[in-house]
Write a structure and sequence with these properties.
The chain has 17 helices and 17 strands. With 616 residues, it is of the alpha/beta class. α2 packs parallel to α3, α4 crosses α5 and α6 packs across α7.
Length: 616
């Protein structure tokens, strides 16, 4: 039994108990409920959906019992995206609203396919973008990726990979696994992770799939790596026992407090547990004794004697220190109650004889906007809430245990560029505060440049020595590389060291050539620049857009004579120039040598001198 999921179900019970005792929300009206266990199975979820949609009498119930209930008015659930998708397809034709507390697939925001679906947990569209920005923020350009082979994992990872590509992040591998697939596939995924060179791995996995993967990796642990997790597992206490994930970082639903809920969980007697099959199973599995044996049923376990103490248990059911998804169930239940209140109540007066249709509840859910325990609840046009996440870090505590520590936040409602905030130190997989490095190739040092490796991502390259005549002055990352021709005072063929620079030539400050030089020498020097600089730059990487320049670029020598002598209008006008195209293009050196190479150097010099003399 999944004790954490049982806590979710108990949160619905607790919320309904509060609502039924409230004098402000649905006063005088009693809500009832049915709880079904889908066992994380799509076929079971479909079976339950048919029962809820068709199995109950279409009558209005005005009694105090839910045993003879009318057709269901709203659904809270399911926890998984794939079961929720199947359920929504069945409920939508009947207009029955479904409010999920844990189904995060971005696909469920499509109101054409899932018109009656709502959720209190954010869409993975926001989480994927937040994960990509975080990876970029910490400078990781070489990562691995693993996902659940389900709607949750496949859609979430697709959104992440798209966002990561836009951020310039390269992915070494992307693997998928689902818990019902053959063990051989799990072993293959684990081997890919062990052999990888990326030190950071993004895991968009459901909790059950993550547990199986970590169990497999634990048999032959890979080198230490930095795990980046999705909300499905990164705040699951059951995963904390795996030391492989110490230092993990990921986005989780904000931690919350539900007053009175811890005592409600513990206030459970054997007699109460016998009334609900799920609670009976929980009691017997927790204390290894049989409640049913007291009523004549034999289970092979000793009978419970009444000395069992829930407060002595330490399991996900009794652990209320991390109420995250539990609060999503709580809010979903209250959202439905507020929708019902809007239908049958005016202020504090409610008419319990009004017959309510599911579509009325659906329409009212669109208008829901309230706060409970300082948490606001509302839905946008897609049925989604505002996306707010805690940035959670798995930190080693003084007693040797591992705990979730909130170190930052992501709020999608903030202005662009201000969504992500970090307010505490992160301790990484090696126990230090120093951000780990994960790149395919290190930045090229002064005197070298990058050469992309054939057949590999652009993040992977070799550093080779710069060619003669290429100069710059600092070490940079691959996406900042700039090329510049050598300054005029450096002799051609010089063996002096050359560098790389991230500053575009338009920002350089080379000194202009002396104005006392003879005019003829100045013209030939300028001509030499025009001929040689493009040849040096012709094999350079594509140049990013830059403002047009009246003469090649300010980084070239600027003579003191009139511009019309050095570059007359016919040469600067791309529509008139028969040789050089175009001098007013997007780059600092946007010359094309395809026409120049077909014209002899001597012919070009003669043509230029002829035009210069004609301009005098």
């Amino acid at each position: 039994m999944d004790f954490r999921e049982l806590r979710f179900a108990r949160a619905l019970q607790f919320a309904i108990q509060e609502i039924n005792n409230s004098s402000n929300l649905l006063p005088g009206i009693t809500l009832g409920y049915h709880i079904y266990d889908t066992c994380a199975s799509v076929p079971m979820a479909i079976k339950v959906s048919f029962q809820l949609a068709n199995g109950l009498d279409l009558i209005f119930n005005d009694t105090d019992s839910c045993e003879k209930s009318a057709a269901v008015l709203a659904i809270v659930g399911e926890s998984g995206s794939t079961p929720s998708i199947s359920m929504s397809r069945l409920f939508s034709p009947f207009g029955i609203p479904q409010v999920s507390h844990y189904a995060t697939c971005a696909c469920l925001s499509d109101k054409q396919q899932y018109p009656t679906f709502f959720r209190t947990i954010p869409s993975d569209h926001h989480q994927a973008a937040a994960l990509a920005r975080m990876v970029k923020y910490f400078g990781w350009t070489w990562i691995g990726a693993v996902r659940s082979d389900s709607d949750y994992g496949n859609n979430g990872m697709a959104s992440f990979l798209k966002a990561a590509e836009e951020e310039g992040i390269c992915v070494e591998y992307s693997e998928a696994y689902y818990r019902t697939q053959p063990r051989s596939k799990l072993k293959r995924v684990a081997d890919v992770i062990r052999r990888s060179t990326a030190h950071v791995i993004v895991a968009f996995l459901a909790s059950g799939d993550m547990r199986l993967l970590l169990e497999e990796l634990s048999q032959q642990p890979p080198p230490p790596m930095q795990w980046i997790g999705s909300e499905a597992w990164v705040t699951d206490p059951e995963i904390l026992r795996f030391n492989l994930c110490i230092g993990a970082v990921g986005f989780g639903i904000p931690r919350s407090v539900i007053p009175g809920f811890p005592n409600f969980l513990l206030d459970l007697s054997p007699e109460q547990a016998l009334k609900f099959p799920l609670l009976t199973e929980f009691w017997e599995s927790s204390f290894s004794c049989s409640l049913k044996r007291q009523t004549g049923s034999s289970t092979g376990m000793p009978a419970c004697d009444g000395t069992e103490d829930l407060r002595a248990l330490q399991n996900p059911y009794t652990d209320t220190s991390q109420l995250r998804i539990t609060n999503m169930v709580y809010k979903a239940t209250y959202a439905i109650a507020h929708a019902l209140h809007g239908i049958v109540c005016i202020g504090k007066y409610c008419d319990k004889n009004i017959k309510v249709e599911p579509r009325q509840v659906f329409d009212q859910l669109k208008l829901v906007n309230f706060s409970k325990n300082n948490y606001s609840v509302s839905f946008d046009a897609n049925g989604d809430p505002v996306a707010i996440y805690d940035l959670v870090n798995w930190q080693l505590q003084g007693d040797g245990s591992v705990d979730f520590v909130t170190v930052g936040q992501y709020d999608a409602s903030q202005p662009k560029g201000q969504e992500f905030s970090l307010h505490r130190a992160i301790f990484w997989y090696d126990g230090s505060e120093k951000v780990p490095v994960s790149v395919c190739s290190e930045s090229c040092h002064p005197g070298s440049r990058k050469a992309v490796q054939k057949g590999r991502p652009v993040c992977c390259y070799d550093c080779i020595n710069c060619a003669k005549g290429e100069i710059s002055n600092e070490t940079v990352s691959p996406d900042q590389l700039r090329w510049s021709p050598v300054p005029p005072d450096m002799p051609w063929g010089s063996s002096a060291p050359v560098w790389w620079s991230s500053a575009p030539p338009a920002q350089s400050s080379w000194s202009p050539a002396p104005s006392t030089l003879p005019w003829g020498f100045s013209v030939s020097s300028a001509l030499l620049w025009w001929l040689s600089a493009p040849l040096l730059w012709s094999s350079a990487p594509p140049w990013p857009p830059a403002p047009p320049s009246p003469l090649l670029t300010p980084s070239l020598p600027t003579p003191a004579w009139p511009l019309s002598l050095l570059a007359p209008p016919w040469l600067l006008n791309p529509h008139l120039s028969p040789v050089l195209l175009p001098l007013h293009g997007p780059g600092p050196l946007s010359l094309s040598l395809f026409h120049l190479r077909s014209t002899s150097l001597l012919d070009f010099i003669c043509l230029l001198l002829e035009r210069l003399l004609a301009a005098q």
